[in-house]
Amino acid sequence: MAVLVIAEHDNRRLRPATRAAIAAACRIEPRVDVLVAGHGCADVAAEAAGVAGVARVRCADAPHYEHELAENLAALVAGVAGDYGHLVAPSTTFGKNLMPRVAALLDVAQVSDVCAVESADTFVHPVYAGNALETVQCLDPVKVLTIRPTAFDAAPAADAPAPVEVLPPGPDLGLSRFVSREGTATDRPELSTARVVVSGGRGLGSAERFQARLTPLAERLGAAIGASRAAVDAGFAPNDLQVGQTGKIVAPELYVAIAISGAIQHLAGMKESRVIVAINKDPEAPIFQVADYGLVADLDDAVPELIEALGR
């Protein structure tokens, strides 16, 4: 049965997580459809059409889809669900907000955070904060899935673009409205897709020290900056930098954890990183149990020395 991937985008470009979702969907069915819902999103539809494995792009363009409000988008997805056996989205804030609503409208179960596809109805996903992997079989007529982006390589470019079809937009349900968006402008890579991530914890002591210690190191490494939940709760960093079970799941080539104790909810968000380096003055910190390289030292001594060594 056909598979539909719901694209996450900003009306200009596809989010990298969407390409990972397409790659996962292609393990269910070699050719998949992609739904692009937005406003002035023709460039996104064209980009999606150029991804390998995409058979067709369905583009719904309307003002009330501009900010991807979940209520309107869920109704649109549910309206076309009869054409598909699987509805797929990345397991990002976007997907976690949207897909449970779709599943509820269709009265089916959802399989969340899929990290492996065994067959068209059997999937693997983490449970217990990532401490166990569960294989589940879904027998619902429509399978609603969110995909862990870090578990799949992004789908490459196609040899030839797929056709783009105009999909009539649904109504504006008026259940929510966009008020404003606040973000931090930065030249650093996006946290969820960065090759290198430097993260700080509550041990940094203050927001000023968080920035003073992590920013120079991140700039030297060309890294994104992350934070533990404790650091976010303490006001050292904004919510969008949180790494962990209740934040972003990352799997960079290098993850540098500074003054992070290693609570289980944080480990769930980064333990799949290829190389983990931990700096902590507590030799009993749980982070050392998953670190490839651990340094027991005061961060005020270790981090400047590391920056200096990287500059040689």
How are the SSEs ordered, and which strands pair?
Layout: E1 3-6, H1 16-25, E2 32-38, H2 42-49, E3 54-61, H3 70-80, E4 86-90, H4 93-106, E5 110-114, E6 116-119, E7 122-127, E8 132-137, E9 143-147, E10 164-166, E11 196-200, H5 207-221, E12 224-227, H6 229-233, E13 254-258, H7 264-267, E14 275-280, E15 293-296, H8 299-310
Parallel strand pairs: 1-2, 1-4, 2-3, 3-10, 4-9, 5-9, 11-12, 11-13, 13-14, 14-15
Antiparallel strand pairs: 6-7, 7-8
Helix pairs in contact: 3-4, 5-8
Short description:
This protein has helices at residues 16-25, 42-49, 70-80, 93-106, 207-221, 229-233, 264-267, 299-310, and strands at 3-6, 32-38, 54-61, 86-90, 110-114, 116-119, 122-127, 132-137, 143-147, 164-166, 196-200, 224-227, 254-258, 275-280, 293-296.
Describe this structure in words.
This protein is α/β, with parallel strands linked by helices and 312 residues long. The protein has 2 domains: 3-166, 3-Layer(aba) Sandwich (Rossmann fold); 191-310, TPP-binding domain (Rossmann fold), CATH 3.40.50.1220. The protein has helices spanning 16-25, 42-49, 70-80, 93-106, 207-221, 229-233, 264-267, 299-310; strands at residues 3-6, 32-38, 54-61, 86-90, 110-114, 116-119, 122-127, 132-137, 143-147, 164-166, 196-200, 224-227, 254-258, 275-280, 293-296. The strands form 3 sheets. Strands 5-9-4-1-2-3-10 form a 7-stranded parallel sheet, sandwiched between helices. Strands 12-11-13-14-15 form a 5-stranded parallel sheet. The protein is globular. The model has no long low-confidence stretch (mean pLDDT 94).
